[in-house]
Specification:
Largest sheet: 6 strands, antiparallel, barrel
Bound molecules: flavin-adenine dinucleotide
CATH class of the largest domain: Alpha Beta
Number of strands: 21
Radius of gyration: 25 Å
Mean pLDDT: 96
Length: 407
């Protein structure tokens, strides 16, 4: 054990794992957290269930990182998804694997994960202080102390694990970017990722609350497809949300300035011909019903008037009078329900922040700053982010551990 004092700013996923890695290596660890309750964000992850990590192998894991994946190789190899699961088991949290390799606590309780992280970080030489860090102090280009709202904590190294800018009520308000910038680091402009999208069409708000399963969702820009996947989505008062929409958002740059167009295929398992036969069959079984009352088996009730109107077919046409052309138009609308994307929701509502401290100024083998001696970074404050599936927490755990063993 080295006779060193390390301060960790932020008791989130990254900071707590950093402290866990540190506590057997250095004489003293101080965790500076502005909230009296540590790991507030972890407690709300995965809709309260916490998707801790993913069982993906290294290559698949890297493919799920949207920015700067090469930066993550060392960190992931030093503290992998299996190391995280082992740590959870050691702390008494059994895990289970769900669809898409997503790992959850067997108890379905994010609180259990947060408590386990706090337990892992705790020790006789670890002190939690409820203080807000204000500045990192240097002498001769080397970290010497952290100034807080309550005083000054002298230390040999600092691990900056203050998170991104999303969900600021959990404590991550972007203050870490300010500290790093003041010390000479470049901040890649923080933007929202894994964020609901705002759309132009008026009919969208009429569908508020409607969730669609097993749809195909594609996004186009300049006529080119930039994203496509199957999954679930949700209509809201401002636009669209849900897993497939959040994942799509990670692929979109400068939404609002650049034009994006989304297409929903409501029946991806059927091609246009099969869908037309299906509609015909439904019409045959509908007797003299009006069109508006004849699509219940095919579409959710709330969507029917929207699809009929967008297809430009009078809603009260008897199904026996619907022409082939009108039927084909209905089929096309069902396969290509279009939406103009005008923006994203604000960064405060993002699941993660894309952007942050530039990876080019951080040593990927140690997480140490290339500019300031004794300064290390961990977690979402760094310019790395990933898709949903447990990858973002894994980024926090892996970088936290690597920073911890090196600080
Ligand atoms: C609603 C929601 C659901 C999510 N679900 C999942 C999921 O299921 N799986 C997944 O992989 N990812 C999920 N994420 C993303 C994941 O939670 C984050 O990527 C991860 O928590 C980042 O960890 P971190 O330690 O870097 O930052 P944070 O967890 O944000 O921790 C930063 C800590 O630093 C503290 N802090 C900040 N500034 C200061 C300061 N100046 N002084 C003292 N303390 C400070 C904050 O209070 C906070 O406790 C979700 C995110 C959200 C918002």
């Amino acid at each position: 054990m080295e006779d060193r004092h390390v301060a960790v700013i932020g008791a989130g996923a990254a900071g707590l794992v950093a402290a866990y890695a540190l506590k057997d290596r250095v004489a003293k660890v101080t965790i500076i957290e502005r909230n009296s309750l540590p790991a507030r964000k972890v407690r709300i992850t995965g809709k309260g269930r916490c998707n801790i990590t993913n069982i993906a192998d290294t290559e698949e894991f890297m493919d799920n990182i949207t920015r700067n994946k090469r930066f993550m190789y060392s960190a992931f190899s030093k503290f992998s998804n299996y190391d995280v699961m082992a740590l959870m088991e050691d702390m008494g949290v059994a895990t289970k694997v769900e669809r898409g390799g997503r790992v959850f606590p067997a108890s379905d309780s994010a609180k259990d994960v947060a408590d386990a992280l706090v337990k892992a970080a705790s020790g006789d030489n670890v002190k939690f202080v409820t203080e807000r860090a204000i500045e990192i102090e240097l002498f001769n280009g080397q970290v010497t102390a952290v100034k807080t709202d309550k005083g000054r904590i002298e230390c040999d190294s600092v691990i900056l694990a203050t998170g991104g800018k999303s969900y600021p009520l959990t404590g991550s308000d972007g203050s870490g970017y300010r500290f790093a910038k003041k010390l000479g680091h470049t901040i890649i402009q923080p933007k929202p990722s894994l964020i609901p999208l705002v759309t132009k069409e008026k009919w969208v708000s009429e569908l508020m609350g409607l969730s669609l399963k097993n749809i195909a969702f594609s996004v186009f820009s300049d006529g080119k497809k930039v994203y496509s996947d199957f999954g679930e989505m949700l209509f809201t008062h401002f636009g669209i949300s849900g897993p497939v929409v959040l994942s799509a958002s990670a692929h979109l740059e400068d939404v609002g300035e650049k034009e994006y167009y989304a297409e929903i295929d409501l029946k991806p398992a059927l091609d246009e011909k099969q869908l037309d036969s299906r509609i015909l069959r439904d019409f045959e079984g509908a007797g003299k019903k009006h069109l508006i009352n004849a699509l219940d088996k095919l579409l959710p009730k709330a969507l029917i008037p929207v699809i009929i109107e967008l297809s430009d077919v009078p809603a009260h046409t008897e199904v026996t009078s619907v022409t082939r052309e009108q039927r084909l138009r209905l089929g096309q609308t069902i396969k290509k329900l279009g939406l103009k994307i005008t923006g994203t929701r604000p960064i405060e509502e993002a699941i993660v922040t894309k952007g942050g401290i530039s990876c080019s100024e951080i040593n990927p083998s140690t997480m140490e700053s290339k500019i300031v001696k004794g300064l290390y970074f961990a977690g979402e404050v760094i310019d790395v982010d990933a898709y949903t599936g447990g990858f973002n927490l894994q980024i926090a755990f892996s970088t936290g551990y690597l920073a911890g063993i090196n600080a």
